[in-house]
Amino acid sequence: MEETSREAVATAVQRVAGMLQRSDQLDKVEQYRRREARKKASVEARLKAAIQSQLDGVRTGLTQLHSALLDVKDIQGSLVDVSKDWRQSINTIENLKDVKDAVVQHSQLASAVENLKNIFSVPEIVEETQQLIEQAELLQAHRKLIELECSRDDLMYEQYRMDSRNTSDMNLISIYFEDVQGLSDDLAKQLWMVLQRAMVTVRRDPTMLVSVIRIIEREEKIDRRMVDRKKQTGFIPPGRPKQWKDRMFQVLERTVSTRIEGTQSVTREEDKMWLVRLLEIMRKYVLDDLIIVKNLMAHCFPPHYNTFNRFFSLYHNAVSSRVKELAFEDLEANEIVSLLTWVLNTYKSAEMMGHPEIQSECDINLLEPLLPQGVVDDLFSKYVKTFTSNITGWLRKALETDKKDWHKDTEPEADQDGFYQTTLPAIVFQMFEQNLQVAAQIDGEFKEQVLKLCLKQMNTFLLRYREECVTFKEDHLRDRQLPQCYVQYMIAIINNCQTFKESINSLKRKYSRSSEATESDAAIERTLNEVVKEGCQFLLDEVFLDLENHLNDLLTRKWLTGSHAVDTICVTVEDYFNDFNKIKKPFCQDMTNEALRRVVVEYIKAVMQKKITFRNAEERKEGAERMIKEADQFKFLFRKLADGEDTEKLCGAITAIAEVFKLTDPTLLFLEVTTLVSKYPDIREEHIQALLAVRGDASRDMRQMILGTFSENKASNSLVTQPIFKDITVPTISMPTMTTMTSMATAKLLK
């Protein structure tokens, strides 16, 4: 208390000090005193009021506690009296069992009286309900059916409560209401019929479908109620639970499956495009039906049914089952492609499940594959096997057709640039293109696989093509009069190889994701080059068969006295090259170079055969001038045909040999031969011997010196890019060998 007083005094001193901080505030001391007095009086009044209020509350609480104590005493006395009365009435309650049984019986009789009217009217209600079902008044029929079932169920429940073991009474009730179950079955049939035609009904009379759903929902509620009562009492009416909701989904599933199975309108025997037609009908049915479900049917079902997704799954499963059945049928190659294209591409595209109108309702990426990967792989393998067999047959047939054209009496067709060709490349690559286009629609990897298969088959085909070309040449050599257009068709074969190359490169650019060359590419390139090389060789062989007699006249006495062999050779070559100009580049240029080379080689071969030996300088001069003139003729001809870098060098070999013959001073022969050897390093010893033999004036010592020097100074000819003398052989003559001549020269020097 003292501490509280001290705190109050300290607080008062602090307040007074705060009021009197300035001198002018001393004049207001009286005013401050009155204000503080008023505040004190106000606080004291509130304090007194609060204390008075608390005292009144305490007084009231004490009064109530006193009253409660009195009430508790009264209740205690009453409980004592009740306990006495209860003990006295136990025997009396046991004596009221008969009254209790009477009450139960009264309750049952009261229920029976209430249902008597319905019980007696059961046959009439059954008949009315049957008529309503036949008239498709389904809601009213269901209302009547519920009344009948309620009457039956109530009676049976009361009987069950009264005596659950009394089966005779239960059977009596069941027999009396036996038509009710039949009505329920008839109504269910009507409901399933409406659901089976739901796609049509929802467009013509959606209220009918709504009525069916309402009836099924009511039955579901009754089922739940009856099941709950069974848990409590053990009793459940006959026919419950009906589970019409589950039956409804089963009916819808069967309906969807039946609709998908009914898409096949024709068989393979009636229409080769039967599968394409079937898949298109299926696509249209599924898309149209799902759009109807989204826009119309979903509004007829309760939201918790998730109607669209449920139908989406039903259609997906039905389509998957149907596609699996098709996959296990004996499908042809084009049918396998159609099925795989539809399954892998069309199904999830905007044309079907990914259609903009239904895409917002579902996620197509969550769909299970229509076909298991194993089945897809089996179809791919089956297609590859069938395609391999088919394309082998197609290529064989195309080649047989082309071979028949080779023996025609008319020239082959020419392209827009005038080059001969046949239809074989177009036919072959049209087949490849069609199959690759189809494969590209299915899958990128499958497209690559088909391309590799095409190239592999192409390589096999080209090997066969090469064999047929050789056979074609051999048949012609047996009778050079047949076929009449042998040269023109051989040119077409060569041009076809170029077309094959271009077409293969085009296919690879268009359908292959990889630009790297494969073993198959190298094999094809190698085979095509061999066909071209052999074809050009066959054509040149044909030319030189015609030139054979004229080439044999070269460097003979007849030639020296004035033969026209070279004129005939030039005219013949030019005539052939009028056709050879129909060969595509670069083969035409290669043909010209090879023809020139062969002409020169054959000419030099004629020299080396030593069919003539010049008798004097006059003959040597005349022969050399003729050779130079004929070399110029060859130059002029082949420059006219297709000028190349090798023309001068090749024809220069004839001129160089002519210079050896033309030389009048034998002492300079060594220098002339040395010049010849320096220009053409591939010349051999036997060639020098032959030239000296033809010249006819070289002494033994001169020959030995020239050949000895040649042997000592001979350079390697491994770097010669265009050898001329390499393949020219010299007929054997009885002359001393180089070793013998060297030994003889050594012995002579020693002497």
UniProtKB/TrEMBL annotation:
Q: Which Pfam families does the record match to this protein?
A: Sec6
Chief localization class? Answer: other
Matching InterPro entries? EXOC3/Sec6, EXOC3/Sec6_C
UniProtKB keywords? Acetylation, Cell projection, Cytoplasm, Exocytosis, Golgi apparatus, Protein transport, Transport
Q: Which Gene3D superfamilies would you find in this protein's record?
A: 1.10.357.50, Exocyst complex component Sec6, C-terminal domain
User: Where does this one sit in the cell?
Assistant: Cell projection, Growth cone; Cytoplasm, Perinuclear region; Golgi apparatus; Midbody
Offer a single GO CC term for the protein: membrane
Q: Which GO terms describe its molecular function?
A: SNARE binding
Q: Which GO terms describe its biological process?
A: exocyst localization; exocytosis; protein transport
In UniProt terms, what function does this protein have? Component of the exocyst complex involved in the docking of exocytic vesicles with fusion sites on the plasma membrane.
* Family per similarity comment: Belongs to the SEC6 family.
- Subunit structure and binding partners: The exocyst complex is composed of EXOC1, EXOC2, EXOC3, EXOC4, EXOC5, EXOC6, EXOC7 and EXOC8. Interacts with EXOC3L1. Interacts with BIRC6/bruce. Interacts with MYRIP. Interacts with SLC6A9.
Which protein is depicted? Answer: Exocyst complex component 3
